[in-house]
Specification:
With about 700 residues, the chain is an alpha+beta fold. It is about 20% helix and about 25% strand. The protein has 18 helices and 33 strands.
């Protein structure tokens, strides 16, 4: 092209298939007006039916890639009705130009605002429809501020060609010679006059039509899919009063939905091809629910619209979801105020049911919580090291009543953080916040106590004293093990919280140990406590951190302790503050497997678990799981490479067994006898090899 900064625009008032020849092969006109679309936008709003728009869009043929349609709502002549049928023309005349003086030739000579009865909702809807159409939108001057017109013959023959209201003065912001040379008078309707409608006044108002259209244009220009995307208009068949249009480009997908009706409407969209994407509203950046398997349901107010940016999952991960809305609990003095007649129902029926599903350790996220209750509660008090005072934490056992009928119990320690909501401290505690607190004029928040260092220090202090914390409905028993007194306490405990939580919450004491809190409470001793005691105290397994202390919760009216799962503290590797992996220093996966001599599953409480015997340390001669003293058992495990194992592992396994057979890894007791499997125990599979029990002797 000789002039790269210029273009040719065809003003051909013809049907789309007839205008196609003006584009040629992309080497003639660059753009052409889409005349048949313009009256059908008005027809769709008048009839509250999307069919006129979707029908003409389906009739529009494809054009060369370097060409575009020019779409518009008005021009300086009239709203031409040549590209409609006689029946449609009569309907539009009767609806928009009942006064015959508003008609001219085969069209209507009214501006956009009078055509829409100066209804701001309708004007915004038509502007949104125009800017969401494929192609380049053409805005007629004056419509961005809602200018009116003068349809009387004495004014001007075409009724629309007059100067724009620039300022609220008689000259409308134009020099006097230009005003006198103007061919029309000012609008005779005061609501459209230059005193009420002008650029100067609307530029100063953030909510004016002019500034709203500026924001709409900015949103459109930020997404290339609007002008260059491939449109799809048949996304819904549930209602004819909503017009969904989806524009897709190589990198973006934009969904535009408009309600053409005067009443609220609900629409279900088939967005199955966008499953997993996150709709984000373009104007307000509001995040909507993720697209799933079912039809996507939207509700729209009269003459309203939505523009959505359908973001892929990897792009929507960084979006900041709206923070939950917290209720405010009044706590004038102490923790007892939360259980008064007015405050306790709010805590149990609103705060706790809303808090539990947001926590990683809550295991019943797929079920609805009908209600919650606090079964037991009490205070855990910690004295400050300098003796200046103390702080109290609330230890509570909550019971969630699920819709399916189950009533799981959880241990929930709480604390109060007194700080305004806008502070950085409170913003960082939003994920663990139950409710807001108010103490006269002081603002605060009720949060999970494990988020504060003081609670972990209070637990260590209670363990040192072997305290029994009384609860209103039970008690918490803090008990030490022999390993607690044998381990040297640091001069000062440094608390570090674990980054990720699952079914438990963990807190590390640097260079000392780990506090592990099991949230879900169930009757009976915890299997991990029993297993740790067996490995350390009886089996002498050196690579298991010793158990230092346990906490048990006993509830009134129930036999025995409610739970030994409540909390346990274990000793960890002092150098790193982590558990020692017995196979971490081994050279390859095969050596790692051979270093573990697996014994048969043993019964620990109500659970079965596989106990590793790394390096064959000294053990109890009865192997712990023998049904009676003096009896010995033999067991051999064969590792066979699976078909889906990496090829390198299969080669190593073949070399180790001489090309055939199995690798035997027997477990030996302290007296040199092999430990056989327990009768009736089925084979157990590991993550990297299939294990098979054999009755053959070791060696």
């Amino acid at each position: 092209m000789r002039y790269g900064d210029r273009m040719l625009l065809a003003e051909a008032n013809q049907w789309p298939e007839d205008v196609l020849q003006y584009f040629g092969a992309g080497d003639e006109c660059h753009m052409a007006f889409h005349f048949p679309l313009m009256p059908r936008i008005y027809m769709a709003v008048a009839t509250e039916d999307r069919h006129p728009i979707t029908d003409i869009m389906r009739q529009t043929p494809d054009i060369p890639e370097n060409c575009q349609w020019a779409v518009f709502l008005r021009n300086h002549d009239e709203l031409t009705l040549e590209m409609v049928t006689d029946r449609e023309r009569d309907y539009l005349w009767n609806h928009y130009a009942a006064d015959r003086r508003a008609r001219i030739n085969l069209g209507i000579r009214r501006r956009l605002a009078p055509l829409m009865d100066n209804d701001r909702r309708k004007i915004e809807l038509l502007k949104a429809l125009l800017l969401s159409m494929p192609g380049t939108p053409v805005l007629y001057y004056g419509d961005e501020i809602g200018m009116g017109d003068n349809i009387y013959p004495a004014a001007i023959a075409t009724g629309c060609a007059r100067r724009c209201n620039g300022r609220s003065i008689a000259t409308a912001g134009f020099p006097e010679p230009i005003r006198r040379a103007s061919t029309c008078r000012r609008s005779w309707i005061p609501v459209y006059g230059f005193e009420a409608v002008n650029v100067e006044a609307q530029s100063r108002s953030p909510s004016s039509l002019l500034n709203w259209i500026k924001r709409l244009i900015a949103a459109r220009r930020s997404r290339r899919a609007f002008g260059r995307g491939t449109p799809a208009v048949s996304l819904s068949r549930r209602t004819a009063r909503s017009s969904p249009i989806c524009a897709r480009s190589m990198t973006r997908s934009i969904l535009c939905v408009a309600n053409l009706s005067r009443s609220p409407q609900a629409v279900e969209l088939d967005l199955s091809e966008f499953r997993g994407r996150q709709p984000v509203e373009l104007l307000g950046r509001s995040v909507f629910p993720t697209v799933g398997e079912l039809p996507y349901l939207l509700t729209l107010q009269p003459y309203s619209f939505f523009w959505f940016d359908l973001l892929p999952a990897q792009e929507s991960a960084g979006l900041q979801a709206a923070p939950p809305e917290f209720l405010t609990l009044v706590m004038p003095r102490n923790w007892a105020d939360l259980f008064r007649q007015h405050t306790q129902p709010q805590l149990e029926n609103e705060a706790i049911p809303a808090f539990l599903p947001r926590q990683r350790w809550f295991g019943e996220k797929d079920q609805r919580i009908k209600a919650a209750s606090v079964r037991a509660h009490g205070e855990i008090v910690r004295q400050f090291e300098d003796g200046s005072g103390s702080e109290a934490f609330l230890a509570a056992v909550v019971e969630a009543q699920l819709a399916a009928g189950a009533r799981p119990r959880y241990f929930l320690p709480l604390t109060a953080v007194w700080s305004p909501a806008e502070t950085e401290l409170r913003q960082g505690l939003i994920p663990v916040t139950l409710a807001e607190l108010r103490q006269s004029r002081t603002e605060g928040a009720l949060v999970d106590a494990l988020s504060q260092d003081g609670f972990a220090l209070a637990i260590i202090d209670a363990i040192q004293r072997e305290a029994t914390v009384p609860l209103d409905g039970g008690e918490i028993r803090c008990r030490k093990t022999p390993g607690f007194d044998q381990s040297a306490l640091p001069e000062r405990f440094v608390v570090r919280r674990a980054g990720a939580e699952q079914s438990n919450s963990s807190v590390f004491f640097e260079e000392y140990g780990m506090l592990k809190l099991y949230r879900r409470l169930q009757p009976g001793p915890h299997p991990e406590v029993e297993m740790s005691r067996f490995l350390v105290e009886r089996a002498g397994f050196a690579n298991t951190p010793p158990l230092l202390a346990t906490l048990e919760i006993a509830l009134d009216g129930e036999s025995g302790a409610e739970d030994a799962r409540a909390r346990r503290a274990v000793r960890v590797c002092p150098q790193s503050g982590r558990r020692l992996d017995a196979g971490a220093q081994l050279p390859d996966p095969l050596s790692r497997r051979r270093a573990f001599h697996w014994r048969g599953p043993i019964q620990s409480g109500r659970s079965r678990c596989l106990l590793p015997n790394a390096g064959a340390p000294a053990r109890d001669p009865h192997c712990g799981d023998a049904p009676s003293a003096g009896r010995t058992r033999r067991r051999r495990l064969r590792f066979r490479a699976r078909a889906d194992q990496p090829r390198r592992h299969r080669r190593v396994a073949r070399r180790a067994r001489g090309g055939r057979g199995s690798i035997c890894c027997p477990g030996w007791s302290a007296d040199g006898q092999a430990c056989p499997p327990r009768p009736g125990i089925s084979p157990t599979a590991s993550s990297s090899a299939a294990m098979r029990c054999s009755s053959a002797s070791p060696g």
